[in-house]
């Protein structure tokens, strides 16, 4: 099908599907994803996998905007007030989830490399669907603030844990000596490289904004900065989301009042990009993989859910967070995509070269991550809505359309 015609159909179906789900009290993003599943290779083949690969830049662009907007929500006053609390929760939910998944998978399979790898991957949380729900319901409060901070920081923690897990699994399968470079240097290089790159572009955008007054010009220069950050992140193999998050964070904190206009313009520009992105997310999810998930996949989902939920509670409790954060934060950390899938592909490409055992590990990781992503992407957004509803942080007035641009 003609790509422009297909994109037009996707936007119409996505908007209608999102509104339909909104009417029955389900976050719009679930509608986008489900309609994407319907249009993908699992059912109608309207959006085949090859087309998704060809349109990958649109996916990158959506992730870049999401990272940029999340960074814009992370004001320095929040970190001054809640920084230690965020760190305690981050380490608690990430490390406990890894420990639970690693233990369960090892007890079932007796395969330590597989258990360690899946344990590391489970620590990642996808910010896209989670943040979309917060924006859709214009959520405000301590729980919302904590959710934004944790999903923003989770990817960095996941990269560090992955570096350790990758190095240990590589030693166990290949017999090579433990590599400090793979275990620590490379993950830290990727994290700090992304922060420095994004921060520099954020400063440049702030500088340009001093002299640009017209709204149209501000929109152009803001999009140009995001594209520049994204292109350089891909070139240097940095995290796309983390790079743009750093750019948004710097822009939001250097001159917050002056740069608020940049964020408002971006918010008004991105709704169609987000709809296409979540339709594509759904189209990539393969229903046929669910039977292949098996007991390992079930243990992964149960262990990840239990680890993040209990870890979020203990971290919030120990750091003195408000009761709403202690009780409901775990509900908002189910979504998984992006980083976990990318790292799973990296595992497959590397370990497949290490013989039959490595190939089997790579295939198992791919199947488990892909299948469980389908489950948690559907379960995650309603769980976020439930959390902010229980915490009383949904705006009282009628909910606006998703991505309208109100701050979470």
What does this structure look like?
There is one protein chain. The protein has 408 residues and is mainly alpha-helical. It has a single domain (50-390), classed as Up-down Bundle (Na+/H+ antiporter like fold), CATH 1.20.1530. It has 17 helices and no strands. The longest helix has 35 residues, at 356-390. The relative contact order is 0.18.
What is the radius of gyration?
Answer: 20 Å
What's the total helix number?
17
Total strands: 0
Provide the residue-averaged pLDDT.
84
Going by CATH, the architecture would be Up-down Bundle
Largest sheet descriptor: none
The name of the CATH topology is Na+/H+ antiporter like fold
Q: What is the end-to-end distance? A: 38 Å
Q: Any idea of the CATH class?
A: Mainly Alpha
Beta-strand percentage? Answer: under 5%
Stretches where pLDDT is under 50 for at least 5 consecutive residues are: 398-408
How would you briefly describe this protein structure?
This protein has a single domain, classed as Na+/H+ antiporter like fold, CATH 1.20.1530.20. The protein contains 17 helices and no strands. It has helices at residues 3-23, 28-39, 49-54, 56-73, 76-109, 112-121, 127-136, 142-174, 180-209, 215-236, 240-254, 256-269, 271-284, 290-318, 323-328, 339-351, 356-390.
Produce the secondary structure layout.
Elements (H helix, E strand, L loop, with lengths): L2 H21 L4 H12 L9 H6 L1 H18 L2 H34 L2 H10 L5 H10 L5 H33 L5 H30 L5 H22 L3 H15 L1 H14 L1 H14 L5 H29 L4 H6 L10 H13 L4 H35 L18
């Amino acid at each position: 099908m003609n790509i422009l015609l297909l994109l037009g159909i996707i936007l119409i179906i996505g908007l209608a599907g999102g509104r339909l789900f909104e009417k029955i009290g389900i976050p719009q993003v679930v509608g986008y994803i489900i309609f994407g599943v319907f249009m993908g290779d699992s059912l109608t083949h309207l959006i085949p996998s090859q087309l998704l690969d060809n349109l990958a830049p649109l996916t990158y662009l959506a992730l870049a905007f999401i990272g940029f907007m999340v960074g814009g929500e992370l004001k320095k006053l929040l970190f001054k007030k809640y920084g230690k609390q965020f760190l305690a929760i981050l380490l608690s939910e990430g490390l406990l989830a890894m420990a639970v998944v690693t233990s369960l998978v090892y007890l079932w399979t007796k395969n330590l490399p597989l258990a360690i790898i899946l344990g590391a991957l489970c620590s990642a949380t996808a910010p896209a669907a989670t943040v979309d729900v917060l924006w859709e319901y214009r959520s405000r409060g301590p729980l919302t603030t904590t959710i934004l901070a944790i999903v923003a920081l989770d990817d960095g923690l996941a990269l560090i844990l992955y570096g350790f897990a990758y190095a240990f699994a590589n030693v166990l399968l290949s017999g090579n000596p433990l590599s400090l470079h793979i275990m620590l240097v490379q993950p830290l290089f990727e994290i700090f490289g992304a922060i420095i790159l994004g921060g520099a572009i954020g400063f440049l955008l702030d500088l340009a904004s001093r002299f640009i007054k017209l709204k149209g010009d501000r929109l152009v220069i803001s999009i140009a900065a995001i594209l520049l950050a994204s292109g350089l992140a891909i070139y240097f193999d940095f995290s796309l989301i983390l790079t743009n998050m750093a750019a948004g964070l710097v822009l939001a904190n250097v001159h917050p009042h002056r740069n608020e206009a940049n964020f408002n313009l971006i918010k008004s520009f991105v709704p169609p990009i987000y709809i296409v992105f979540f339709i594509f997310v759904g189209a990539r999810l393969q229903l046929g993989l669910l039977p292949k998930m098996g007991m390992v996949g079930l243990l992964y989902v149960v262990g990840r859910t239990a680890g993040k939920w209990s870890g979020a509670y203990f971290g919030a409790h120990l750091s003195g967070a408000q009761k709403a954060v202690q009780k409901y934060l775990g509900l908002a950390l189910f979504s998984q995509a992006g980083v976990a899938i990318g790292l799973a592909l990296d595992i497959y490409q590397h370990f497949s070269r290490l013989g039959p055992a490595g190939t089997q590990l790579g295939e198992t990781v791919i199947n488990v991550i892909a299948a469980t992503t389908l489950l948690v992407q559907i379960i995650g957004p309603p769980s976020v809505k439930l959390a902010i509803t229980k915490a009383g942080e949904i705006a009282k007035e009628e909910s606006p359309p998703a991505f309208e641009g109100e701050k979470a």
